[in-house]
Recover the amino acids of this structure.
C-alpha cells in the first residue's frame, strides 16, 4: 500500500490569541505544540507521511497553504480549529478551503473537534 501524505494546516500556535471566544478553554501554545507532536508521531507510526504547515492570520496565510500544496500530492488536509473556529477567522477559513480545493482537489478535507483528536479526524478519511 502506498504511503498516504497528510498535511496538517493551522495557525502557528505562538500567534494564537487563546482568549478568543470559540477556542477551547485552557488551551495554550505549549499544549497545542505537544498535541501536534503527538499527532504527528501517532500518524507516522500508522504509516502516514505527515507535514505540519503553520500560517499566520495575514493576507498571505492561505498562500502559505497553497504553496505547500504545490510541493507534493496530499491525500488528506486537516484544517485546524484555530483557522475555522473563532468567528472573526471566517474569511480566512474560506481562503484556506479554496486554496485546498484548488491546490489539492483530490485530497480529503477533515477537521478536528479538539487538539487531541487530530489523528481520528485524519483516519476517518484516509
Amino acid at each position: 500500500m502506498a504511503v498516504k501524505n497528510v498535511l496538517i494546516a493551522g495557525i502557528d500556535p505562538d500567534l494564537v490569541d487563546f482568549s478568543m471566544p470559540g477556542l477551547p478553554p485552557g488551551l495554550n501554545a505549549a499544549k497545542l505544540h505537544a498535541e501536534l507532536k503527538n499527532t504527528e508521531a501517532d500518524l507516522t507510526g500508522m504509516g502516514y507521511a505527515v507535514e505540519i504547515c503553520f500560517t499566520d492570520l495575514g493576507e498571505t496565510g492561505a498562500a502559505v497553504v497553497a504553496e505547500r500544496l504545490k510541493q507534493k500530492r496530499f491525500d488528506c488536509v486537516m484544517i485546524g480549529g484555530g483557522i475555522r473556529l473563532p468567528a472573526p477567522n471566517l474569511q480566512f477559513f474560506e481562503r484556506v478551503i479554496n486554496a485546498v480545493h484548488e491546490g489539492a482537489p483530490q485530497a480529503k478535507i477533515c477537521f478536528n473537534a479538539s487538539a487531541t483528536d487530530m489523528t481520528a479526524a485524519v483516519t476517518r478519511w484516509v
User: Anything to note?
Assistant: The chain is about 40% helix and 15% strand.
